[in-house]
Amino acid sequence: MINVIGVRFRTAGKVYYFDPKNLEISRGDHVIVETARGVEYGTVVLPPTLVEDEKVVLPLKEVIRKANNRDDEVEANNRKREKEAFKICLEKIEKHGLEMKLIEAEYTFDNNKLLFYFTADGRIDFRELVKDLASVFKTRIELRQIGVRDETKILGGIGFCGRPLCCHTFLSDFAPVSIKMAKEQNLSLNPTKISGICGRLMCCLKNEEDTYEYLNRKMPNVGDSVTTNDGFRGEVSSVNILRQLVKVVIEEGDEKEIREYKVEQLKFKPHHRKDRKKDDNEEELKELERLEKSDGKSKLTED
Question: What is the pLDDT of residues 208-225, one digit of tens each?
Fold first, then answer.
């Protein structure tokens, strides 16, 4: 077991482990650490904790120091300078006529590098832009092309649920999301209804996947024959997964009647569902491609 702290450098960003040495560090403290990008200013989200060796990438870098008032001022000043750098970069992009959308500017804590994040439909030749920016800022310039999910994670916003976006508030990594998850939850397969504001399948489909898989294992499918606890046989017309209710078409003589039962009031042959991760159903994938041809973007699986 190794004693580590977890440090985050961006809102809802990935958590990195560092050696706290003998420093008294608590959750919410700011620390100065050395990373592959140079010296960085981060926030402690995981206080000193023992973790298993295999979860840590060795050698583990040490915390340089806890941030002091001077460090806080430097960080605040960097944030102000980033806004000005963003404006200047926008002007340079327009000057060079590049078809790219600038998302964010970011200074490293030691000011050794200035990063610009952007989105674009294809590859962009920004070599002249980099030279132009380097002559203005007199530091190393790095341009990074990101995807639409990363763009939304950086900018934030309000989801269809009325709450701040999960990716901007607590999701540190994007989990794969597939159309099968929407099918499991009996959702409409209309891409506009199951896609987030980034235009990709909603991350919450993954969050609720395990619950729906568990509930669906206890339910019959529409069209299945069932026997009710009051002695009738009928066919399932619809199911309410969350309430565990089933509507059954009952035949009494020449008449048909729809009755609602709790799932435990029914007897039926259980279904042995395949593991979604192993079941790569080509028909479902083709269906999603057909649904999403309207915007020309593939959303089969979001990595």
Answer: 898 998 898 889 988 899
